[in-house]
Amino acid sequence: MKSERVVGRAVRRLMEKDPEIREKLIIATKGGFIPVDVESGERPQEFFRNRFLKTGVLRETDVVGGCHSLRPEYIHECVLRSLKNLGLEYLDIYYVHNPEIQLSEIIPEEFYSRLSKAFEVLEGFVREGRIRMYGTATWDGYRSDVDDPCRLSLGRVLRAAEETSAGKRHHFKVIQLPVNIYMPEAAALQNQEFDDKCLTTLEAAEKMGLYVMTSATLLQKQALKENKLFSFQMLDNLGNSAARRAIQVIRSLRGVTTSLVGM
Prior knowledge:
- The protein is an alpha/beta fold.
- The chain has a single domain (1-259), classed as NADP-dependent oxidoreductase domain (TIM Barrel, Alpha-Beta Barrel).
- It has helices at residues 2-17, 44-53, 72-86, 108-127, 154-162, 185-188, 201-207, 242-251; strands spanning 28-31, 91-97, 131-137, 172-178, 190-194, 197-200, 211-215, 258-259.
- It has a 6-stranded parallel β-sheet with strand order 1-2-3-4-7-8. A two-stranded antiparallel ribbon has the order 5-6.
- β3 (131-137), α5 (154-162) and β4 (172-178) form a beta-alpha-beta unit.
- α1 (2-17) crosses α3.
- It is globular and about 55 Å long.
- 33% of the residues are buried.
């Protein structure tokens, strides 16, 4: 919540100088986890009870792992809250955050049904012009082995979007997952089914026409410890910056749209 408000203030300051700059920015945020608003002055349990339980947005049975929910009413509230925190009329991308956590407690059939209902809410915001596209921002889901119960099947996630009222014209367009030299699974692990073949997540996403945003590109600078891996001549035009070289290696992977670097 606080970070959204900070970003919102920064964007408004930019817009004061250049009213047209909003169209040049890609602003994304995410929801799914139960937040804590440190600026509210309420303790976490009070905030949860007052903002979600008493208002009927959530029931305790809707919460998985004590921290996450895909209930449609909750996802709806998450989007409205993000728009308010950012002070914006629309979001370019809205991610359902780490939906795979649900698979630790429910069976896949129930999970993908819940995900489709959450996507239906997001399609509603698209129709209203308040979201341009949506996707999933994950950590383990797309990086896990085929036999891992918490693995996300990209094909089934896409089908969950197709099962909304938008059908084949859905706006599920983007996925986010970590990719770096310590976490290469998206480019190396063949864990996604497509046309009776097993592909890597990057290969499958490309076949499905999805944008891929890679996170943890530098893994909180841990990836820079292996700077010898980025010393080949092809990257000499980037200078001696290990960070610049590491980012270039990941963003050059086939199927990657953008590599993200946190601050």
